[in-house]
Amino acid sequence: MSAGLNLILVASAALFVVGVFGVVARRSAVVMLLGTQFMFIAGAIAFVAFARFGLGALHGTAGATMALFAGAIAVAELAVGLAMAALVYREHRSFALDADRG
Amino acid sequence: MPLIGALPQPITSAPLVLFVYLVLILLLGSALASVLLRNTVYAIAAFAAGLVLVALLYLAIAPFLLVAVQLLVFTTVSAAFLIGLLRATTGLRTSSVGRLSPEWIVGAAVSAVMFALLALVLGATSWPVQFCCGLGAENFGAVLGNTYAVGLAVLAVILGSAALGSGLLLAAPTLPSPRGGGSTSSRSPGGGGSTTVRR
């Protein structure tokens, strides 16, 4: 038994799908933001996996650097997204993002 | 471009393979819990657990600096943002357990012991960090500061802009909505929007 690029990439893809599900299927602004975070994390894990097991290993720090940047961008996106969620809550007293809510 | 040297081999050490499998399974479970749970507090807790699990995964396959940043910066900042949002909106109450109470001291002691144990294991055995250190990634910090200096500067600007923008968004008055809402003041019990709009 071994753990290589395929395993990490499959897990990364599954994590991305979970994030997409959170964005598409849920209507809570907070959960949608968490879904986008999981999509960012999935991409970062794929970067790191390629750097560790794939061709990127020739430049071993590149994948980790990209993961670092992706994480920082995700945090920035979370900050702005949560501020917008707070405004939505102030307006509607709910985190739900229904278009037909009165 | 010709490929120079052999590709790195998959991880074959049985304990580390089990560790990676366990972390991946728990990570997917926490992600599912985070998007499926109805309770926002539990969803955020599952999300924070997922970030910690990502840090544990990085421990096995990435440079240690990325582990530290993921654990100490991304996880704590994201959790702080989410808890701050809850406290500002749905009214997450302050804990009734005061500081320096027996419960607080016991919890802090347990956390300190766990971190000390982790540091001891890492310092004494370098497990599982030793598996990633043969990739020429020991000088990750130097590479970040030299090769990616411009990227780091851009990143700092982006993070600063995000902090400023989110602060301005939170401080700004609510815009009037087309349906007549738009007040931050208290609403009537019937759900109708207030007519007062702060500008």
Index terms:
heterodimer, A: 102 residues, mainly alpha, Helix Hairpins, B: 199 residues, 2 domains, 6 helices, 0% strand, globular, disordered C terminus
By CATH, the topology of chain A is Helix Hairpins
Figure out the total of helices of chain B: 6
Q: How far is the first residue's CA from the last residue's CA of chain B?
A: 60 Å
Oligomeric nature of the chains: heterodimer
Largest sheet of chain A: none
Helix content of chain A: over 70%
Q: Major sheet of chain B, described briefly?
A: none
| Number of discrete domains of chain B | 2
The beta-strand count of chain B equals 0
* Alpha-carbon Rg of chain A, integer: 17 Å
Instruction: Report the sheet-strand fraction of chain B.
Output: under 5%
Characterization of the model:
The complex is a heterodimer of chains A (about 100) and B (about 200). Chain A is about 75% helix and about 0% strand. By secondary structure, chain A is mainly alpha-helical. In chain A, helix 1 (about 5-25) runs antiparallel to helix 2 (about 30-55) and helix 2 runs antiparallel to helix 3. The longest helix of chain A has about 35 residues, at about 60-90. In chain A, about 55% of the residues are buried. Chain B is mainly alpha-helical and about 200 residues long. Chain B folds into 2 domains: about 15-95 and about 110-135; about 140-175. In chain B, helix 1 (about 15-35) packs antiparallel against helix 2 and helix 2 runs antiparallel to helix 3. The longest helix of chain B is centred in the middle third of the chain and has 25 residues, at about 65-90. Chains A and B meet through helix 1, helix 2 and helix 3 of A and helix 1, helix 2, helix 3, helix 5 and helix 6 of B.
